[in-house]
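Table S2 (text version). Query chain:
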Amino acid sequence: MPVPAPFTPLTPSAVVSALRAAGCVFAEDEAELILATARTPEEAARMVDRRAAGLPLEQVLGWAGFHGLRIAVEPGVFVPRRRTEFLAEQALAAAPDATVVVDLCCGSGALGAALAHALDGAEVHAADIDPAAVRCARRNLAPFGGRAHQGDLYDALPAGLRGRVGLLTANVPYVPTAEVALLPAEARDHEPPAALDGGADGLDVLRRVAAGASEWLAPGGCLLTETSERQAPAAVRVLTDAGLTARLAVDEDRHAHVAIGIRPPETAP
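Corresponding structure-token output:
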């Protein structure tokens, strides 16, 4: 019987070359992350193969950096984007003293975890319709005492939160249905369609979130949602039409657009 050849550990330059050949634009940075995350040379080789095959880097690593935290990411779960850190920043600026926080369409729970970490002692709830996302969110929220619930938007939440939420984030799917096929393969092929497809104009889920916001927000409570530059004016109108005082925040460097709606203090549920 032939003797297997000994495994040859990958050198950093070999990893970079393999990733560059696969079309990875930031091959040097990705190689550094893979080699720092892998526990054995064999695991590093498997990770390089998976990345070269097109799997998103974060799913190869098993985590994504977000707002200073390492967020666990499982296969098939929406990967948090760095531009969404702007949503977290705007949320903390809008409601720095929030004691009750809800993150709808939570995916991995990245937003909820970031807010729970910053708002020490806040009661944090997250919700998603996808069981894999909820499982992942529970893992990420556990260190901060947060809870994740499975269900369709507000239906997933404990009834006792009605009228008490000071900060409501919702990184809703906002890609128009006809444009989902145009997304990069990393998103199109490896993330759940429900986390990407926002309906004909990309605003279907936002309309549902906005319609229920005043019932769940405390007086003066804030709803924040990410949107695209093209959709931003329409997203602000959706919040206004739902009875919220709305505005838009923009970070040009990150190409990030966040629509913010505040429930007027005098509005009864």
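Notes on Table S2: Residues 53 and 112 are 31 Å apart (CA to CA). The longest helix spans residues 204-216.
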